[in-house]
Amino acid sequence: MSAIRCRLPFLVIFLEGILLVLxxxxxTYDEHSDAAAQSNETDHKHNQLYAIFPVFQDVQVMIFVGxxxxxxxxxxxxxxxxxxxxxxxxxxxxxxxxxxxxxxxxHHGHIHIGVxxxxxxxxxxxxxxxxxxxxxxxxxxxxxxxLSLLEVPIFTATEWIIMELxxxxxxxxxxxxxxxxxxxxxxxxxxxxxxxxxxxxxxEGADYNSDKLAMLGTLLxxxxxxxxxxxxxxxxxxxHRAVLHTYIGLSxxxxxxxxxxxxxxxxxxxxxAHIQNAALAxxxxxxxxxxxxxxxxxxFTLGCIASVLCTVGFKYLTPFLAKRLKIxxxxxxxxxxxxxxxxxxxxxxxxxxLAADESxxxxxxxxxxxxxxxxxxxxxxxxVRLLPQLKPGGGRSAWDQAQYQAAAIGVxxxxxxxxxxxxxxxxxxxxxxxxxxxxxxxxxxxxxxxEVEEKEEFxxxxxxxxxxxxxxxxxx
Amino acid sequence: MSAIRCRLPFLVIFLEGILLVLxxxxxTYDEHSDAAAQSNETDHKHNQLYAIFPVFQDVQVMIFVGxxxxxxxxxxxxxxxxxxxxxxxxxxxxxxxxxxxxxxxxHHGHIHIGVxxxxxxxxxxxxxxxxxxxxxxxxxxxxxxxLSLLEVPIFTATEWIIMELxxxxxxxxxxxxxxxxxxxxxxxxxxxxxxxxxxxxxxEGADYNSDKLAMLGTLLxxxxxxxxxxxxxxxxxxxHRAVLHTYIGLSxxxxxxxxxxxxxxxxxxxxxAHIQNAALAxxxxxxxxxxxxxxxxxxFTLGCIASVLCTVGFKYLTPFLAKRLKIxxxxxxxxxxxxxxxxxxxxxxxxxxLAADESxxxxxxxxxxxxxxxxxxxxxxxxVRLLPQLKPGGGRSAWDQAQYQAAAIGVxxxxxxxxxxxxxxxxxxxxxxxxxxxxxxxxxxxxxxxEVEEKEEFxxxxxxxxxxxxxxxxxx
Amino acid sequence: MSAIRCRLPFLVIFLEGILLVLxxxxxTYDEHSDAAAQSNETDHKHNQLYAIFPVFQDVQVMIFVGxxxxxxxxxxxxxxxxxxxxxxxxxxxxxxxxxxxxxxxxHHGHIHIGVxxxxxxxxxxxxxxxxxxxxxxxxxxxxxxxLSLLEVPIFTATEWIIMELxxxxxxxxxxxxxxxxxxxxxxxxxxxxxxxxxxxxxxEGADYNSDKLAMLGTLLxxxxxxxxxxxxxxxxxxxHRAVLHTYIGLSxxxxxxxxxxxxxxxxxxxxxAHIQNAALAxxxxxxxxxxxxxxxxxxFTLGCIASVLCTVGFKYLTPFLAKRLKIxxxxxxxxxxxxxxxxxxxxxxxxxxLAADESxxxxxxxxxxxxxxxxxxxxxxxxVRLLPQLKPGGGRSAWDQAQYQAAAIGVxxxxxxxxxxxxxxxxxxxxxxxxxxxxxxxxxxxxxxxEVEEKEEFxxxxxxxxxxxxxxxxxx
Lengths: 476, 476, 476
Prior knowledge:
Main location (chains A, B, C): membrane
Largest interface: A-B, 81 and 85 residues
Transmembrane segments (chains A, B, C): 7-29, 49-70, 82-103, 115-137, 175-193, 213-232, 244-264, 296-317, 338-356, 406-427
Oligomer: homotrimer
Keywords (chains A, B, C): Ammonia transport, Glycoprotein, Membrane, Transmembrane, Transmembrane helix, Transport
Distance between the termini of chain A: 29 Å
Pfam families (chains A, B, C): Ammonium_transp
Number of domains of chain A: 1
CATH topology of chain A: Ammonium transporter fold
Largest sheet of chain A: 3 strands, mixed
Helix content of chain A: 55-70%
CATH class of chain A: Mainly Alpha
GO molecular function (chains A, B, C): ammonium channel activity
CATH superfamily of chain A: Ammonium transporter AmtB like domains
């Protein structure tokens, strides 16, 4: 594996050099973090930090701990799952700070950053991690760093088109994050198809302890998902509904998963991997409609639908895709992010069309800024008398908004598949140290794994000692 | 186990159908989550969400992660402990949203909900989980779902009587949550007595890794317990004291536990199970008095008392109850919730009687709303001049309040034992798939457990491979 | 080990007795937690609790969960690492409440406490835990309790001198916490040198599962480190920058660690222990300058430098110190806290000297209160016209401030080495039950370890059963 030795360090050092130069050239403080931006009127209690920091920390736990443990479910790839998730997360956040900065926060030649930028950078980061799930254990750290390097700007551009041009509603990212990340990742893994793994791989599975740790990851993601779905909703009732709907969706989804997983097994046994994944599908499915008046029953229903499709997907669709369509989806991201992403995207459109404007009252324009009449429209003048702080919008009807949402799905899928395919071919470049089939799903090529030391130790210790060791170690 | 197959899924689907119908019929948004309830004067920064969300998330971590890992301490029932805790948590929260809604938030035929309702629902949820601890590993998922279905309304009714009629002080739930849940659970397990487990069971124990994960659960519960004890205290100094007292009580309790656990062992060895449980007893013991002027030294003392009783309980009382009284208490909830619950309940009464009104100053009426003079009382008029925002109360003396607290303990125990006994007999109904003794404390009947796959794999791989496998897996 | 039996419980009970007496004699509520301190004007929403509680909880997770899991990395000392960390944490917090109270919050014969005191107590607690890392597994619980008993007051006195007399800037504690704790701990372990461990110890290592749990500890510390570095910065832009710089420093540090760790291994394999530790070095290195205008690129650079030095330190310096200088540093605190502490201390000085006053604008005096002109100085009068709320300071120049920072490093190291050495000799006292070499890094002397029960069980179960047991347990 000297391949790794020469490649990973130099790629990382190279990437860091670039990051440092770009940060030094472009990045400066925003008005909330810049000491010089404070006037003698500034009330420090109202610094933006305090409005977003607690939720930011929740999302941090999801990205670094929740995703990390969930990625560490493989019995012999636990270090890789947890540590490489960590690796691409820190790289993606820094890279996204720059790329998103150029798109959204570039003024007079500088990117102005504060904690809000770290928060948005984590959406890019989450996108990379979801895609990573498709190729977990089949790719070298060099490959996944390149994956991050390419996916972050493609994601940011796509999000910019969808949010700035099409101006759609997607607070939970069902479309911009989950659909994009899933089909980008599936395209990558399709290009990286390994015939040698067609019959499965002896290490492609969990053991009792890795499964419990992965379950812990799921629980952390589950608990903090309402923070993730609400953080980008409009403050007040918008965020309140986003939390409520996400929680209800996740609950009904989790409950359903136990039923379906047991129902799909001939002995009625629950597959813990279904719980680990499908219990989260509800969070994806309520993403787009999270802050709309989807009603509690609506959120409940979305959770149930997402769970059924996700669990059935794990049982039948993933093996089918692997065998027939040569799509080897290690973590089953199509089931957790793809299908529920579609459910969420469609739910958003349906909610826009079915929820009467009356049900929103004055809150309509907080929730749908594009529904506000255009500059100069007579209706705007009337509204402003009622809601003085109202800003002119796009004068869209519900039907207009629904069409833009639909268009966004198409744009998102198109770019994801195209971008993922190109990325996949780049990852095949020989010097990226793609591991041989027999080395897949194993930490050994990348990490010093304790067992090895054990073995050496055995040679030096006398047998009784070894036995003693062994007996004591058995249940460890 | 085809019993499971036909029963669990259909029960879950049936329960979900009912939940969906009831939610669709009854549940709507409250003024904080309803877009239509917003006026042009609404300041979104003051939405109730922001006042409770961070603490709500802390409680979420306790319920789903802390309890889950602690329930997963059995060496072969890790999936069951963690996943079934998850199962009953999501069901109980949704069911409690409805039941508590009918009791507390029912207006014009609708239950109005926001994040506050999710928070109160979690108290019902915690109650179910505590009771679950008594029958952990001895009951099928079907049984524990029925347990939740029955305990949530019985708990809610009891709490309503105690809080709305007797109007007692119990911010940390020493009485309403811990005493109730404990004696409800012990009554259930007494009815479900298994003579076959009299001599113990080979799987009723932890291994090195399950103990470390359970310890992690304890640490999370420990860290967030101050949030749990303070969230229902009056805002300001009341919540501040609740945090302080809970923290001090937990600290002294933890320290004491190390001493007592070592002292009780002939070789002076510490029992990690004592640390996992008794370290939390202090949080239960300061529950009722958490926001009163119990003094830091008082909180410290409560922690010490709770720890001693809890640890001694694990060492001597639990085996005694199992042998003599046929009460098989798997997690020892009587030691962690029952006895410390009594300590907390009595501490509340003692504090009410001993803490002079002067020590509360103006804060007296924030802490004891029932101490405010009755409507029309001359004293009220005088007080209102000082504290304009004061509302009429029950005109209770400290002695009156103490008597109501004592009455609440009786009511709580009576309903808990009666309700638990009835529930126990219902759980014995043959079609609830109660596992045979030999299947207790084992995931195998309910989950696909990796080991099984391992075995199959061995058959297909050549011996050298298997050995290789084995050697590599040893310390895993 | 009856030594433990008689010593640990009695020491703990003795310490608790003293704590209780002192708390009863001295500790009372502060104005935020005292009911009697509330006037009818008090706005409960502005109780100090709400400003610090969320960040306090983040720090709680670091201290109890993050540190605990990281200390549990040894394969046979998992209970000890996690539980003894818990033991000294609860003792140190209570002891620090008193000691810091006497130094900082002592009025009219009473120590006035609120949640803020718990927060500051945790800095003392963190200091003890860092030092504990140097002697992990080589000391009895009796010894580490004595260590805590001695280190807390020495730390508090040192911090008082540095903060109250020298008035330096060190929001993240690079000097007061990390440098002090490291050299105190190294001095202790030097005095406790064990020739018998010169050749290493068969149990001084991790296994696959303990490493994954330690990695989880690292991730939690990583995620919440920005809270730790920002909580003592001035509110508003100061805390905002502290979060931003810490996050950037941690990210660049983590990325670098993957490169260096791989580069230092002949096969290019990553050492997971490097990731567990060096990924955090950036948090230490930005500590002193965290709230200064160090610039994002500056924070990025500090992270890289800290990572390189820390990783190289683990690879070459730690073995060297153990062999040549008889400094056996079990957790390598010199690499994670010592060297990065120096980087942070120097970075603070450099930033003070290089960052122009203009770059701070009006924020200069929030960040450097000592830079405000002295009482009576004409400049002060002018400034007060601009910034009415400004309080007189020390009239220091940047150069003055830099010199005070340098002096603080010296003071800190001097007291740490002296105090640590004395503490070390006290810990050598025979009745403190220091474990024999062969018992090091093993839970067996202190805890009932499941394996033992297993063994007994084997005797009672028939062979087939035992095998069956064994086969099922293998991958556990």
